[in-house]
């Protein structure tokens, strides 16, 4: 793995840096609000309803570790709409669009739906969760997070040791406390450095080639829970916890693809196994 040039990942990194330059290149100060430009590039001229309660974003005010910032996006139980997609954006990251989750028939309803993960935040930034419901309307929740250096933080471990057990995946399901509750919980953990091409190798002083998860598909049987498209802002060793609709068979099948084109797959284990 070490020393390998990941041309696909490098292209993504360069495109992300170009996007950052595009949204900040103007005669105004660098601290100018970049959201209007990001909104136009991501959602065009579509209206977005802000802080209307359909999506709730949990994030720390100050990140203890900017490379491992916990983020939870919640849809309150009183929101009965079917969900189409959920987009996570960090305004000031090199690639602001962190991930987009597109939902399928197994995403569930009738309770509080949620997705949690851990992200890198490069500098003080607004973090946004934009929910698209089945009727095509957009709803946004925003938090400001104080963080520094999460994307370019030097890797404290030898890159070769980071690749030990690379691709080892654990998928778990958690039944609700009440047997009649409509939603299960799932968790996916993958051993993967998720290198973004901006981190220094402590041994050589050079940059570690980009290699990160770009797609994840979660299915309950033949039904899609969600499909995620992601960028290098997801933290090392990607970890996701989420709800999904209850069925007769609640086993999950998960597939992930990284920028090297390697496919990782696993099936769920029940909680406690």
Quick tags:
globular; mainly beta; 15-stranded mixed sheet; 273 residues
Describe the structure.
The chain is mainly beta. It has 3 helices and 15 strands. The protein has helices at residues 7-24, 35-43, 159-162, and strands at residues 48-50, 56-58, 69-75, 83-90, 97-103, 113-119, 125-133, 138-145, 169-174, 183-190, 213-220, 223-230, 239-245, 252-258, 263-270. The protein has a 15-stranded mixed beta sheet, with no helix packed on it. A hairpin with a 4-residue loop joins strand 14 and strand 15. The radius of gyration is 19 Å and the shape is globular.
The general outline is: globular
What strand line-up does the widest sheet have?
1-8-7-4-5-12-11-14-15-9-10-13-6-3-2
Mean pLDDT: 88
Quaternary state reads single chain
**Distance N to C terminus:** 32 Å
Unreliable spans are 1-7, 20-30
Q: Please give the radius of gyration in angstroms.
A: 19 Å
Q: How many extended strands?
A: 15
Query: SSE order, as H and E?
Result: HHEEEEEEEEHEEEEEEE
Q: Tally the helices.
A: 3
Percent of residues in beta strands: 35-45%
Q: What helical percentage do the residues reach?
A: 10-25%
Characterize the main sheet. Answer: 15 strands, mixed
Secondary structure layout plus pairing:
Blueprint: H1 7-24, H2 35-43, E1 48-50, E2 56-58, E3 69-75, E4 83-90, E5 97-103, E6 113-119, E7 125-133, E8 138-145, H3 159-162, E9 169-174, E10 183-190, E11 213-220, E12 223-230, E13 239-245, E14 252-258, E15 263-270
Parallel strand pairs: 1-8, 9-15
Antiparallel strand pairs: 2-3, 3-6, 4-5, 4-7, 5-12, 6-13, 7-8, 9-10, 10-13, 11-12, 11-14, 14-15
């Amino acid at each position: 793995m070490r020393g390998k040039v990941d041309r696909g990942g490098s292209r993504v990194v360069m495109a992300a840096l170009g996007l950052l330059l595009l949204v900040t290149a103007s005669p105004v100060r660098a601290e100018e609000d970049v959201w209007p430009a990001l909104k136009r590039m991501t959602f065009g001229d579509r209206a977005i309803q802000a802080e209307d309660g359909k999506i709730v974003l949990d994030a720390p005010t100050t990140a203890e570790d900017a490379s491992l910032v916990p983020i939870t996006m919640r849809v309150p139980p009183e929101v009965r709409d079917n969900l189409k997609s959920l987009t996570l954006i960090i305004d000031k990251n090199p690639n602001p669009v962190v991930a987009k989750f597109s939902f399928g028939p197994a995403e569930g309803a009738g309770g509080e739906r949620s997705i949690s993960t851990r992200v890198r935040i490069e500098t003080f930034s607004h973090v946004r969760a934009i929910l698209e419901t089945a009727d095509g309307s957009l709803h946004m929740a925003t938090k400001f997070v104080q963080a520094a250096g999460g994307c370019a933080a030097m890797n404290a471990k030898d890159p070769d040791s980071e690749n030990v057990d690379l691709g080892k995946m654990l998928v778990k399901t958690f039944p609700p406390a009440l047997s009649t509750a409509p939603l299960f919980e799932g968790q996916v953990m993958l051993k993967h450095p998720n290198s973004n091409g901006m981190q220094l190798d402590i041994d050589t002083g050079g940059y570690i080639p980009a290699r990160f998860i770009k797609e994840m598909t979660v299915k309950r049987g033949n039904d899609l829970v969600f499909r995620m498209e992601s960028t290098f802002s997801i933290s090392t060793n990607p970890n996701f916890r989420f709800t999904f609709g209850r069925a007769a068979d609640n086993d999950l099948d998960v597939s992930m693809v990284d920028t090297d084109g390697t496919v990782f797959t696993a099936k769920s284990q029940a909680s406690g196994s």
